Amino acid sequence: MDIRQSAIGIACSILLLSGGAETSRAQEPLTVAVAANFAPVLERISNRFTRQTRIPVQVSVSSSGRLYAQIRNGAPFDLFFSADQKRPQQLFKEGRCEQPMVYVNGSVVLWSRRQEVCSQAGSWQRAVRETGPEKIGLANPELAPYGMVTQKALVEEKLLDTVQDRLVFGNNVAQAFQYAASGATGLSFIALSLAHTPRGEKGCFLPVPEAGPVAQGACLIRTSKHRKAAEQFLAFMTSRETASVLQQYGYTNKPANLNPK
């Protein structure tokens, strides 16, 4: 073999090795921190994203408050999908994430596994008054935005004192849903999206409009090692295909940037 052939062989080997390294990097999962209310939806969206891009997505589910604390402590997430606007805004102010965006607006409902609860009560206020002494599930207001807005609605409707002793707090809205689905509580305040899951559709729900729409913010973490993939995922969130999934779970989708206060 002459010198020229040898050089070509070495060059080809280098290209193969570098190509293998790029493939390895491309296969590293995108790590996404997501609030519990959005987890079932994100799973479906992630599967579609992976089929189209071949980029795997690894999801970590918890309350917005706990995920926020983990990110502040250096957890290696690429994206954060919160159940509120406050925490992404705060991370942006602290220089820990890029400009946040509102990715969906959600709603609170009162859910029961017993159909007659909804048909007989007709309204969530009447349901919580007339189902005593049954326990009522609620996501921890200090950690979960859906719990916080529900607590405010209870205060405004002058019902908090009535139900205070019956409340069972979950770490997040998914746990509050689990309480009612398993029968640990007779009712639970949850996100509408969870009522549209297969398990949620076995029960019934009453809207809680007094809690108002819940604007949920997302942001790209500045320490992300997969920025390009993270940007692709955020762009995918605004696609028509994703919008149809969001609508199935009761979300409205009008992406907009969040301006820090």
* Biggest sheet overview: 6 strands, mixed
Rounded average pLDDT:
88
CATH architecture of the largest domain: 3-Layer(aba) Sandwich
Q: Would you tell me the structural class of the helices and strands?
A: alpha/beta
Using the coordinates shown, work out and report the CATH topology of the largest domain: D-Maltodextrin-Binding Protein, domain 2
Tell me the radius of gyration: 22 Å
Q: How many β-strands, per DSSP?
A: 11
Number of helices: 12
Succession of helices and strands:
HEHEHEHEEHHEHHEHEHEEHHE
Task: Walk me through this protein's architecture.
The protein is of the alpha/beta class and 261 residues long. It contains twelve helices and eleven strands. The strands form two sheets. A six-stranded mixed sheet has the order 2-1-3-10-4-11, with helices on both faces. The protein has a five-stranded mixed sheet with strand order 7-6-8-5-9, with helices on both faces. Helix 5 crosses helix 6 (124-130).
